[in-house]
Every structure is written in C-alpha cells, then in structure tokens.
Amino acid sequence: MAEIVSLAEGVGRLVHDGDVVAMEGFTHLIPHAAGQEIIRQRRKDLTLVRMTPDIVYDQLIGAGCARKLIFSWGGNPGVGSLHRFRDAVQNEWPVPLEIEEHSHAGMANRYVAGASGLPFAVLRGYSGTDLPKHTDTIKQITCPFTGEQLAAVPALNPDVSVIHAQRADRAGNVQMWGLVGVQKEAVLAAKRSLVTVEEVVDELEPVPGQVILPSWAVTCVAEAPHGAHPSYAQGYYDRDNAYYEEWDSIGRKRDSFEDWLREKVFDMEVTDK
Amino acid sequence: MSTTTDAQTYTSDEMMSIAAARALGAGQRCFVGIGLPSTAANLARRTHAHDLVLIYESGTLGSKPDRLPASIGDGILAETADAVIGVPEVFNYWLQPGRIDVGFLGAAQLDKFGNINTTVIGDDYANPKVRLPGAGGAPEIAASCREVYVVVRQSKRSFVDKVDFVTSVGHGSGKGDRERLGLPGAGPTLVITDLGIFRPDPETCELVLSQVHPGVEVEQVREATGWDLTVSPELSRTDSPSETELATLRALKEAK
C-alpha cells in the first residue's frame, strides 16, 4: 500500500545518490516540485530518464545532480533550447553529462517493456538514422515469423519513477486525467515510485478518461499543490507559458541560473506537512 | 522580408505558412509537429480543410484548437480532441501501422534528399558545435506516415548538401533507399520554405525547386541552397496569399 508522506520525506526515502530516476509527465503534469526537492536534497550522480527533458531536467542538470541522461527530446517546448543541458553536453558544466539518446517511440516502448516485465521491446523504428551508431541500446532483430528487420530496445526499469497526478485518496490510490503520457508505464516499470498530487481527498470522484494507479502499485504519495507548475494540471491550473519564456533568460547564463537556484530552491522555506 | 502585392503586405514567413497550409487536403489525417507545421495545419483547418484530422504526439487524436497551441502539450489540444490517449499508444497503434496520411515536420537542417537533422550541428556527435533537441517523434513519423511534408526556413545553413546527422530519414542517399531500409511510407514528397516549394525528382529523389513564392527570384533560392540546385522545367509561381488566408493566419496568431 502506498504511504502518504511529505514531499521532502518521499524524496529523502526513495531517491538516492547514483539512482536511475525517471520523472515523467508528457508536457502535462510534470513533477517540477519533486525535481526541485531532489535539487534541494543535493542528490548527485543520478541517471535521469525522461522522454522530454524540458525545464525540469534543465534545472537538475544545471544543479549538477545528473551523471547521465536517457532521453528523446531535450528542448524548451515552444521556446527553444535548454541552455543548462547544452552547457553540460558541450562544456561539461557543472559536471560532464553522458547521454543515451532515443526517439519517442523507442523510449515509450522501453517503458512498456519495463512495465510488462519483459527484457526488451520491438518496434519499427530507427532504420537508416544515425542514432544506432551512437546509442548502443538500439539493436536490430529479425522477426522469427516474417523475417522482417525490426529495432529492439531494452526495457527501462528505473530505481525510482516520479510522477505528478491530480489526486489521490487517503489510501494512496492515484487518479490522473488529460494527457497521461507514459506515467503509468513509468511507475509500473520502476522498482519504487513517488507520486506527487495536487490534493489528497476522501474519495476519488470518477473523471472521463481517468487513469487510476491502485495504492498497491505505488510506493509513496506526497501532496504537492501546484507541484506541476510551470506545466499544468488539467482541472486545476493552466500552463504558465510566460515562465517557459522567462526560463530562456534564467537558464541562458550560469550566473543567472545560480542566482535562481539560490533564491528559488535552496533559500525556499520547505513546509513539512 | 516583406512583399507587397496590390493592397497587401505580408512576410515571407506568412507566405511559407500559407503555402504549407494549402498543401494539406480535406479529410487527411495529419501528424503535426510543433512550430511551423502546427501553424500551417491549424491554418488549413480554418480555411479549406475543415475536417483535417490533427494528431499530436502528446496523445491527442482530432484536436480542434481555436488558437495556436503554445506547445504540443497545450491543454487546448486535449480539451478539443476526439480522443486522448497515452504516448505508447500514439506511436504503436496509430503511427506505426500506417494510419496517418501526412507527417508534417520541421527541421534544423535538411539535405538534398530530404533527410532531417534535429540532433547535432558539426560532424562530431560527442563534441557537437551545437547540441539540438534531438529526435522526438520525428524518426518514426518520417518512417511510417504515408507521406511527409517538411516546412523550414531556407538558408545555406539549413539547406545543406548532406546533413551532419540523420535524425529522420528522407530519401536516404537516393532512389530505392527507403525500400532497402524497410521504411513503409513514401517519405518527403513536399518541402515548403520561405522562398519556394521543392519536390523530389521522380528518378533521383533529389529535391528540385518546383515553385517560387511571389517576389522571389530563382537566383535567390540558389544562393540559399547548399547544393547545386536543380530547377524544375515546369517551375511555377506560388499564388499570393488571399485576404482570407492572411486574415485567418493573423487571427490565429493573435488569439490567446
């Protein structure tokens, strides 16, 4: 059964130095509060996994928490580049960042294999691209029935997956709706999971298109109101598009990023509920 | 650059979006990349192709936004969709089996065979001159859609002889390559830029200039092309944007 904990406790207990950590939320329900808590607790040597390492990973990478990134698209959506990510890849600042690069279809299938308890997934992908030359987790496989050449990618089984959802009940059952990306797969693929939610409620009222993660499939649930900001939580708040624009100038320079880190992460009062 | 025709002034970017929108037909199912492709696809849906089905990789089938989405995950795409689905389903059930007519992509670099680079600039992957965002959904969109349209601002830097990195395959190194690689779709059949429109030569698959936008000279296109450009013997000129097209595009861009 999922335990209801504070965000600080959840990160403290579930995310360790050197872990493989997946934080998912495809443009919606991005676990930003949890990301900043990981920075605040000064985790290091993490292998970060995420299809779209946008601002949430730019922050973790800039803060020096990551040793490696497994991903398929690293940009500031609708704005441009991730400057901390680029600085890490091009200049090894603040620490070198190893990358393992896939396509979205490859990453999604790696989570599906992980959630399914299979060692790898098969897809029709990557053929003719330069990705397999640089990513050794892309191999060719021959279909034993038709002889077709296909791509094989290994399962992702993170030490811990972190996602954000709209609600949980007091027993720790999690409810989310709207764009649900690969969150379910990421949680089911992981050894441990932390789900932050907008609110913990007495009863989960059904919502069209909802995904429910039963309490027994989740390790810890933490209430983190506004925990997806600057991304959005459908039914709670909209995407803060201005923040994404603003991040371009904050993240562009090491100085301005470090100022941000001090002011908005390390100096923030953490309220433990 | 802006061009004046009759009583209208418009930018080359507007001409590009309008030319790209015109390429989309009614009833087509279109997998839409963000940025220029999304602008064009939404314009098409609001001008001549009202039943164009927009599919976004964030997990929406049949989105009908009344403004331009700020990102592929903009809430308006989910709220106005026929169906909202998980990301593995987008790629495995909808894209991979060939259910999508047109993949509409942008590019940082595009070469003469329509191969797309959105990964790194420079020839050393480990020490790139510029690190770009990466593949996203594009490699499989380019592989599995029945055809691919690319929309890109054209310059010698973006229109190159050979891409530094093949993120998404166009026509590989020429005719027959897609079949050899087992790529089911036809690949890029149309490339729309701010200067004109290119189509692959049926014999070689090399991109050939087939249309120039109003006010653009062939010489200008040649100067903005990183290979020895071939001009189609049937070169034509793009119609200027209509008042309706311009007004609709501007209203879309202004809507919040």
Which descriptors apply to this entry?
heterodimer; A: 273 residues; alpha/beta; Glutaconate Coenzyme A-transferase; ten-stranded mixed sheet; three-stranded antiparallel sheet; 9 helices; 13 strands; B: 256 residues; three-stranded mixed sheet; 8 helices; 26% helix
Write the layout of secondary structure elements.
The complex is a heterodimer of chains A (273) and B (256).
Chain A: E1 3-5, H1 7-14, E2 20-23, H2 32-40, E3 46-50, H3 55-62, E4 66-71, H4 83-91, E5 98-101, H5 104-116, E6 120-123, H6 131-134, E7 139-142, E8 149-154, E9 160-169, E10 174-176, H7 183-189, E11 192-201, E12 211-213, E13 220-223, H8 241-252, H9 254-266
Helix pairs in contact in A: 1-2, 2-3, 3-4, 5-7, 8-9
Chain B: E1 2-5, E2 8-11, H1 12-23, E3 29-32, H2 36-46, E4 53-56, E5 60-61, H3 75-79, E6 83-84, H4 87-95, E7 102-105, E8 109-111, E9 116-117, E10 120-121, E11 130-131, H5 138-144, E12 147-151, E13 159-160, H6 177-181, E14 188-192, E15 196-200, E16 207-212, H7 218-223, E17 231-237, H8 243-254
Parallel strand pairs in B: 3-4, 3-7, 7-12, 8-13, 12-14, 16-17
Antiparallel strand pairs in B: 1-2, 4-5, 5-6, 8-9, 10-11, 14-15, 15-16
Helix pairs in contact in B: 1-2, 2-8
How is this structure best summarized?
Chain A: This is CoA transferase subunit A. The complex is a heterodimer of chains A (about 270) and B (about 260). Chain A is built from 9 helices and 13 strands.
